[in-house]
Design a protein that fits this description.
Length: about 575
């Protein structure tokens, strides 16, 4: 409770100012000029000098006894404008009513000229000149006397009550993350970026593969540091920074007039991607963990992949339409449009609370993540299995558009051709959690591996437009394993290191993808079908070996009973 002295015009006035969580009591003292009314239209109020950082509503209740002995009560309610401003405005309005109640012209009579009843009479409307003079006088006193109150005010304060922060709502923030990813992953430029480099910038497919290798090298360098940045400085800030850098890279990529600018745009684009890859899964897990709902993570991760795939599908349709109606350059520039709305969505998100106490430093986060990977063989091999699956991604990222061009599909239909491929990714992502519950994690990984290899074999052996039907199966198989793998790693990693550990997989993917993309580009420049065959063989070797090692490590860990619960 804070007691504030108030000198206001009027014989006697006593009031109470109640602000949310910060009650203030105000007592008025009369001044009289001997003629039954006050000596002027001036009043002074002392106010609290705290900064609670929230907006509150403020109500002033006061009673006035006029010179006829009639007592009445009035209430002034001020809507939130900040803690200190709200209370000051409420007191100012109360003081104005006190001045008008005993201002001389309306004392003893109401607006209709009748004697007042049991309550306080309704005064005449004051002249604007007096109110403005009152406001200017108060402002002048504040400037002259500084922030420590007015002369004659008696302030006795107790420690203010701490305002409890708003509770974190997992459902709301996970939905906002879905919206952020849906807008940010529209990416209209991905529908034509290979054709843009080969036809508009006159690069060969081999050179495109080498450019993609450079792209993945930049991701490899930035992946773990940006994951540690997210663990140290917050996931929400990481989303915003990454989206800004990525948007700048895409815009420069479309407008680059020479090769050095093209390389710089690739670097910015790749570095921006590293800020959100791995961070989105860590955000979902931390948000669900705030309400002890970690078991729901696989289904939410699957929905996220489905949403990003659907957004990419619509974005590809838009990008191909823009490129066909204008030119390939504007199809790339359109990819920078979703950046601003996605950043606005990220600003509405809240940082999820984390379990485990104070955040470690940046270097300590890196050390802890690598120590956790050394200690947990099953987690390490699960990440390597995810990396092995990603070694086949050049089939979609590099070879898909040359496949369409080989079979004389016009650019305007590229977006429509991507639709079934994206739907395959959506089905695999949504069904991942159900498949894990039905068949178990081991069989889910096996289905993902076998389905991917089979799809590549079809693409390598069937030289027809009908081989396009293998692409939905290929994307469904890859998407089937993604949520299951991230859920497996999340449940075995503590919160303070989660984004850093999850960023190790994109790091390994960048390393492997940089090699397989270069190889697929060089081989596909001469023989497209042989490029598919090489990717199938690579996936069989790397994926089969990583799956066998993970299966062994997981059985040892389960047998030893050393499962680590995520903090």
């Amino acid at each position: 409770m804070v007691r504030v002295g108030l000198r206001a015009l009027g014989p006697r006035a006593r009031g109470r100012i109640d602000c949310e969580r910060t009650p203030v009591e105000a007592v008025g003292v009369a001044s009289d000029d001997g003629r039954g009314r006050g000596g002027g239209h001036r009043w002074v109020a002392a106010r609290r000098h705290d900064r609670l950082g929230v907006d509150v509503a403020c109500t002033v209740d006061f009673a006035v006894r006029d010179r006829h002995g009639v007592t009445g009560a009035r209430r002034v309610h001020q809507r939130p404008h900040g803690v200190r401003r709200t209370r000051d405005r409420a007191v100012r309005r109360a003081g104005g009513l006190l001045a008008r109640a005993d201002g001389g012209r309306a004392v003893g009579r109401n607006r209709r000229g009748r004697a007042p009843g049991s309550g306080l009479h309704r005064p005449r409307a004051p002249r604007r000149r007096g109110i403005r003079r009152c406001i200017r006088a108060v402002a002048a006193r504040r400037r002259a006397r500084g922030p420590h109150g007015h002369r004659g005010a008696r302030v006795t304060s107790r420690p203010s009550t701490t305002v409890a922060p708003r509770p974190f709502r997992a459902t709301r923030n996970v939905r906002l993350l879905f919206a952020f990813m849906a807008v940010g992953r529209l990416q209209p430029h991905l529908a034509v970026w290979v054709v843009y480099l080969t036809d508009y910038r006159d690069l060969s497919l081999a050179q495109v593969g080498l450019m993609e290798t450079f792209f993945q090298v930049v991701k490899m360098v930035g992946q773990v540091p940006t994951g540690a940045f997210a663990d140290r400085y917050g996931r929400r800030l990481t989303f915003i920074v990454g989206m800004a850098i990525e948007g700048a890279g895409i815009l420069l990529f479309g407008l680059a007039s020479n090769f050095p600018l093209l390389v710089l745009s690739y670097a910015l684009w790749a570095f921006g991607l590293t800020f959100w890859q791995g961070n989105e899964n860590a955000y979902i897990y931390d948000a669900l963990g705030a309400e002890d709902r970690e078991r729901e993570y696989p289904s939410h991760a699957g929905r996220l992949l489905a949403i990003t795939a659907t957004a990419g599908m619509f974005g590809s349709i838009v990008g191909s339409a823009v490129a066909s109606q204008t030119n390939l350059m504007w199809g790339i520039v359109a990819g920078a449009v979703p950046v601003i709305p996605s950043m606005l969505v990220a600003l509405a998100m809240r940082e999820p609370p984390r379990k485990g106490g104070v955040r470690p430093s940046y270097v300590a986060t890196l050390r802890g993540a690598f120590a956790a990977l050394r200690a947990r063989a099953a987690v390490r091999w699960a990440i390597l299995f995810e990396v092995a699956l990603a070694s086949s991604r050049p089939a979609n990222a590099i070879l898909f558009q040359p496949f369409l061009a080989r079979h004389d599909v016009p650019v305007a239909w590229f977006g429509a051709a991507i639709v079934p491929v994206a739907l395959g990714a959506v089905v695999g992502s949504i069904g991942s959690a159900r498949v894990v519950q039905t068949f178990g994690i081991q069989r889910t990984f096996a289905l993902s591996l076998v389905g991917s290899i089979a799809s590549l074999v079809v693409l390598a052996t069937v030289d027809s437009i009908w081989a396009l039907t293998a692409y939905p199966l290929f994307m469904a198989s890859l998407s089937l394993g993604g949520p299951a793998l991230s859920g497996y790693v999340n449940t075995r990693t503590e919160s303070a290191l989660r984004a850093t550990v999850l960023s190790v997989a994109p790091l390994g993917i960048a390393v492997v993808f940089s090699m397989t993309a270069a190889g697929a580009g060089i081989i596909g420049d001469a023989h497209l079908l042989e490029a598919y065959a090489a990717l199938a063989a690579t996936l069989a070797i790397l994926g089969g070996g990583a799956y066998a090692m993970w299966l062994r490590a997981d059985r040892v860990e389960r047998g030893g009973g050393c499962a680590l619960e995520a903090k």
